[in-house]
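Re: Re: token formats

Sure, here are both.
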Amino acid sequence: MKSPVVEVKGLGKSYPLKGEPFWAFRDISFQLEPGDVLGIVGRNGAGKTTLLRVLARITDPTEGGAVVRGRIGALLETGTGFHDELSGRENIYLNGAILGMSPAEVRRKFDEIVDFSGVEKFIDAPVKSYSSGMRSRLAFSVAAHLETEILLVDEVLAVGDIGFQEKCLSKMNDLTQSRARTILFVSHSMNAVQSLCNRAILLEGGAIHTEGGTDHVVRAYHDLMLGSHGRSDFKSSAGRSGTGSLRFTGMRLEDLSGRPQLSVPAGGGVRLIFDFESQLAEPPDEIIITVVFIGSKGLRLFGLPSDVLRADLAAVGRTGSFVCELSKLPLLPGNYDLVVSCLVDRQLTDKLTNLCHVTVSKGDPFGTRRLPASQFGDGLVDFRWSVAGESAGKDALLLKTGKETNGGPTH
């Protein structure tokens, strides 16, 4: 049996708040073996990032302890461990030295790191001149390629473009399969967690709510976020932006006949209902609502912008609901994240990320009790197959080959 590389026992972290301790998390315990990939999920403020900061030894725990056996690479915020005044090249060597690597060891990995990050043109420029995306790409590349046994990854991949996010997830998958790298992965993307992790824990209120296989934990996460009636209430200001003059207050699903739904069968029809509150001082000329579905590995699958249909949504009261109807949801079974935004007279009033989720369950859209394999992607499209050209009926084929048909010899 493999020895655990991470042992967490009764770990807790508190901060003073108005004279009383506020516990970011408490009584957290788990073990990880080499090659384990642990997904850490939960709503904003559940303690996920603080837990990684304690494991990375950036923050001291208040109680309990953690034993980590091996070099740790931590990617907890954009450019963690970088010195702004140094160049990208110098920071790569600095990070290697912090990990206890010799300059020769770093030199062997240097070209691979720079090539993966895509910042070779700026590698000798000071990191302070990098965009947040460039810093994120270089930081991940350094953490993934230098000789670490344990990699801590927070939601920072959201900073990079979609193509780089997929590249990072593919690299982490390679690290665990070919090099037995142990990864702790915090993400709000349930598809990314399911595609990468073999285990997961759900944090709620600073404690472990659910732990086990990823599918089990993701189901618990969606039940927690949507509740027993399939409605998600948006009470937190985290994960959203905009002026707030018109804000979403909740989301729910219905089938096309108006019955509440917890999930949508593959290929089934659905109504996405977004409740709102308005504090607009005067009637707007135009309101645009956009919903974007995010699939496996953070890829944008498709968008539903109301202005494409020239939908008139401007006649709003103080409260109400925006309803988007899809006659057939073109997605395979899985869990999908949504990015939802509202623009009033071209000004962003609310944008939700990491707060809206849709679960697609199994369905039978083709009447064959079969669906395309997930290896083909997340999309589900209506299609037909047929054969054209010379007749390919059974009798014609047998005549052509000179074999017997049911009517006797062919010669």
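Second one below.
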Amino acid sequence: MNTTMKMIALGLTASALGACAGPTQTESNFGESVRQMISAQTYDPSTLTAPSAEPVDSTDGQLLEGVLEEYRGAVASPESVSNEIVIGLGGGQR
């Protein structure tokens, strides 16, 4: 009986220490894809570490025109998303 109690105590101790383990590889990289995307989409990367307090007075007109054309042409076309979405689960018929 004494050996059984020692084994239970050892198992509980190991479980408690395992719960305090460091982050897994997935947890240590959590949010990295978002940070990478923000970095890739930033026009001037120096503004990420030292942002300016000044308001934006002007911008590149051709750049904004290109952004608007892309938005109007590709992003804002509702007919491309009006198709029915079918999700089949378990191989059954609808």
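Residues 38 and 48 are 9 Å apart (CA to CA). The mean pLDDT is 77.
- S.
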